Amino acid sequence: MKEKVVVGLSGGVDSSVAAYLLKEQGYDVIGVTMQIWQQEEQAVSEENGGCCGLSAIEDARRVAQVLGIPHYVMNFRKDFKEKVIDYFCEEYLNARTPNPCIACNRYVKWESLLKRCLDIGADYIATGHYARIVQLSNGRYTLKRSKTLAKDQTYALYNLTQNQLSKTLMPVGEYSKDEIRAIAQKAGIPVAHKPDSQDICFVEDDYGKFIEEETGVSIEPGNFVDPEGNILGQHKGIIHYTIGQRRGLGLSLKQPGYVIRVDKDKNEVVIGTKDQLYSKVLYGNRCNFMSIPSVEGERRTTAKIRYNSPEVPCTIRMAEEDLIEVVFDKPQRAVTPGQAVVFYDDGIVVGGATIVK
């Protein structure tokens, strides 16, 4: 009997080719599009190829028809609201910069989708992410960087569990983006040249306005201050600022000023120099390890502190039960609370954590 795999069809070229490749490999493939936030009568602007609007569902239907596979739409709005939108708003209100895609991957695209698919008899779920899943000699499952580093998405997937990894297929990770588009064109897949999705799917541009409308919280203005506490001007609310920001401050300073800290308790945004943006040490919690069960003693790895940053050498150790200390060989720019730090060992994901400070 063929193994059954449910592919998360987003309406984009990557998930479409994932479904095609798995069908070619002999799997019994079912396409599922996750309806995660939009209302039936409302579609998000999709000029950049968004993956969440109503036309994405129609694109996925067309792809499934061409591939000759069943296609279903599953409603995950409640999960997405609780695990992604509420988290996104809460983090900004607490002076942190969230990464909603990481939360969505772990708690919606995997936790919720996987459970529902296993309940209907699937053996695996599959996605169009640019990453590879490997099982190491120690028995643990982990992620390996995709063939094309320019598209590698392991950073945004570091939070997946061992159970989730063991029941997931990621065939796209073996190819470059150009190869994926070529496969799509040859297979007659109608979205072969659809642009990649960009930015956060549920906010068009104004994060602050979205958070105020979503939460009903009135964002109070406060003071810009220098590191010594001297008032430099007034900001329009802490949710509008993130570490490293230089533009949009509206300050007249003798030298370029950057956001170096956001203080929720004092409702202050601290402005400093470029040099003051650099940190040699960071701490992270909500740790999730992949290639190893935990960190014993000190361990040398490389780390990324944002999706598009390079891997840099560091030493990690557990400072407390769920608090990891990361000491970089060289100070890193704009370490941002709320973002992820992800550890690698020769292209393999060791694990990661949420940056606290």
UniProtKB/TrEMBL annotation:
Gene: mnmA
Name of the molecule in the record: tRNA-specific 2-thiouridylase MnmA
GO molecular function, a single term: tRNA-uridine 2-sulfurtransferase activity
Sites marked Interaction with tRNA: 129, 339
Function: Catalyzes the 2-thiolation of uridine at the wobble position (U34) of tRNA, leading to the formation of s(2)U34.
Region of interest (Interaction with tRNA), ranges: 151-153, 306-307
Keyword field contains tRNA processing: yes
A Pfam family recorded for this sequence: tRNA_Me_trans_C
Catalysis performed (reactions): S-sulfanyl-L-cysteinyl-[protein] + uridine(34) in tRNA + AH2 + ATP = 2-thiouridine(34) in tRNA + L-cysteinyl-[protein] + A + AMP + diphosphate + H(+)
Residues binding ATP, per UniProt: 8-15, 34, 128
